Amino acid sequence: MQRLLSRPYIATIVLWLYCWPASVAAQTTTGSIVGMTTDPSGSLVPGAEVTIQNLGTGLMQVARTGTDGTFIMSSLPSGRYKVTVKKPGFKTLTREAVELAVDQKLRLDVMLDLGEVNETVVVQSATSTLQTESAETGHVIESRRILDLPLLGRNFLNLTSLIPGVVAGAGGNNTNTSVNGQREFANSVVVDGIEITGNRNNDNVVQPSVDAVEEFKAVTSSYAPEFGRAAGGVIAVQIKSGTNDFHGSAYEFLRTNATTARGFFAPDPSQLKQHNFGASLGGPIMRDRTFFFASYEGGRIRDVFSYLDTTVPSQMIRYLPNGSVDLSGLRDPNTGNQIPIFDPDFYNTNFDSEQFPGNIIPADRVSRAGRNILQQLFPAPNRPGLQRMVFKLQRPAALPLEFGNRRLAAGPHSRKGSVQPHLQCRRRRHIYRGPLRRRHPD
């Protein structure tokens, strides 16, 4: 074990992660830019130098157009890019702020004007939103909509219901999304290219914080071969990345008992108190080279609620001084008739039933442990009538719940590659205490 944890071994792992090529990591969430270069006459321009640079991280790729004037840049993380095309005899063309979404295949054709290479033409027109490089159908929901739209429980996957062909499933797992009529078990969810659904009921075993998600794409049909394991839809989630500028967020959502209503059967106002809180931070470790991003989200719920339960009719039971138990007052509340108590030993001997005289169980036939349980652990009924032929009890209970702690560390990662080692932990602690005679203290 000491040899495995030696410094050279750890240094080798760190170096391997740092130098891991971009083509290996996050293949299912990175995008690509393809295009064709022509001159004013429409003729193809081969051998032009095409440079693509990420405006946030400085990630840069350089390629040359082929004999057919085309170029392709792949394994590009989502973000804003600057595209520069130049060749001797033509003016340099620059496209500013080209938006590339998660798993997008963006078509970007350019036309070079005749002139000196030191002359620059800046194009700021928007790129086409029509998907022409793939037959897949789907929709991208970006960070701004994820943060601004209301989410019950801060589960961003609920936004998939905004996409045509996607509806809620039958509740068989925690993703609960039906795509084009398929069951909720037929979907694939990937985070930065890593499958996060379980292999039994397709549960989503990892859920990043809303503030950690850059954007996600729900592909509903005709998706590419790398998504071939799902019969329903594919949800590709892209986690935020560190950039050359520090960026982050801090938040707390508070729900107090002053704004909650009393339950229909509850005798007291609601005591619900709920907190959702967290923070995220990303930035540079080495500018234009190495970056980090981390987030945390936690939640606390404290509630005192009541529910309809069943109990024994303790008000109809009398414990006599000699140790006998008098059940002569045991009555059916619907008819008022006495409920007879039969001697089990008589039946075992005579195969016939015989009621205890006076409906009183003798002291030598009474279990001391059973009597103590009835006297000390069962509360008296406090509601009229019966529930499933048993006496009713409105029971208070306390529910302290610590839920959904989400820790996510993405980084370090370098602009030379898109490797983003992730560490995520989720802890859910559910403690139930009840019954209570009083409200749970704050």
Characterization of the model:
This protein is mainly beta and 442 residues long. It folds into 4 domains: 117 residues, Immunoglobulin-like; 102 residues, Ferric Hydroxamate Uptake Protein, Chain A, domain 1 (Beta Complex); 98 residues, no CATH class; 65 residues, no CATH class. The chain contains 4 helices and 25 strands. The strands form 6 sheets. Strands 17, 18, 19, 23, 24 and 25 form a 6-stranded antiparallel beta sheet that branches. A 5-stranded mixed beta sheet has the order 3-2-5-6-9, with no helix packed on it. Strands 10-15-16-13-14 form a 5-stranded mixed beta sheet. The longest helix has 13 residues.
Keywords:
single chain, 442 residues, mainly beta, Immunoglobulin-like, Ferric Hydroxamate Uptake Protein, Chain A, domain 1, 4 domains, five-stranded mixed β-sheet, 4 helices, 25 strands, elongated
